[in-house]
Structure formats: structure tokens, C-alpha cells
Amino acid sequence: MFKRALSLYRRFFWSSEKLARFNGVNIGKNCRIQDVVFGSEPYLITIGDNVRLTNGCKIFTHGGAGVLRVKYPNIDFFGKVVIKDNVYIGNNCLIMPGVTIGSNVLVAAGSVVTKSVPNGVVVGGNPAKVLGSITDFEEKMLSKNVASKGMNKTEKEKYLLSLPDSVFIKK
Does some domain include residue 162? Predict the structure, then answer.
């Protein structure tokens, strides 16, 4: 009972990053980790520096063995997951076992990453595919820069509501 209470305390009162480190995830410097599920073998996950993992992401290190256990009762298999430096992973992404995500990568929200991702790209979709380069993304988004980083909530709201529609992203 005490173990269960302690587990609930950690889950609700510790930051996601602190809980992940406690459970064995190897996390670099200057990372922001929101509400992320690290699966049952978090010690098989390595996260580099300057990584942002947003709400709802799930990282898997195993899966599928259960269907083979009638024939092979002892079967188990795993894949380490490596997320290198300067990576942004959008909300509700799924990262599958054995995947390495290279440096300077943006993973679009809702993506299912089933294969390793090279350095310097934007990926998205199910399954995730390369959509373009970070350089192309940078060039496109610089024209939409409203320079609001660092403003408090009230300043940001007032500022954004004062801008013309032409500065906002349109799809």
C-alpha cells in the first residue's frame, strides 16, 4: 500500500522530467518534458540536449511479443530509442521501438514514428515521413516571426490580438 501511495505521489507531484530520470530515462541538458509516457522499460530511452517532448507523447521500447507467446512462451524483444540533440516532438506522437531521431529534427504533432529519422528534417504523418528540411522550415517560418517570445501572458495576448491577419500562419 505504501509503495502504491509513493508511486501516486511521484506521478502527481513530480515533474515529468524528474519522474522520467527517476525511472531510468537518460536525459541531457536543457530539456522540456511535458506529460509523456515512457513505457515499461524507460532505461532503454536516451534523450539528448535541448529536446522538447510535448503532451501526450508515448515512447515504446517493446511490443508485439504477446501474440507469439502461445507458441513461444518465453519470447520477448526490445528496441532502444534514441532522441538526439535539438529535437521538438509535437503533441500526441508515438515513437516506436528501435527508432533513433537525429539532431535538429521537428516531429509534427500526431505523428507515428516507425523508422529512424535523419538529422535536419521535418517529419510527420502515420507513418511519419520526411516532409522537408529544417532549413526550408526555417526560411518559411521566419516570415511569420512575431517576436513574442519572452512576453508574459497578458502582454502576449494584447500584442497578438493587435496584429493583422497577414502575419498568422494560414493552411
Answer: no
Cell of 75: 519470447
Q: Strand order in 112-113's β-sheet?
A: 58-59, 94-95, 112-113
Taking a C-beta distance cutoff of 8 angstroms, is the pair 56, 35 a contact?
yes
Look at residue 155 and tell me if it is in a domain: no
CATH classification of the domain holding 76: 2.160.10.10
| 139: DSSP letter | H
Question: Helix (H, G, I), strand (E, B), or coil: what is residue 26?
Answer: strand
In tens, the pLDDT along 120-168 reads 999 999 999 999 999 999 999 998 899 999 999 999 999 999 999 988 9
Q: Position 81: which residue type?
A: V
Q: Report yes or no on whether pTM surpasses 0.85.
A: yes
Domain count, the chain: 1
168 assigned to some structural domain: no
- Domain residues for the domain of 123 are 15-133
Phi then psi for residue 126, to 5 deg, are -135, 105
- Which residue is listed with cell 530511452? 45
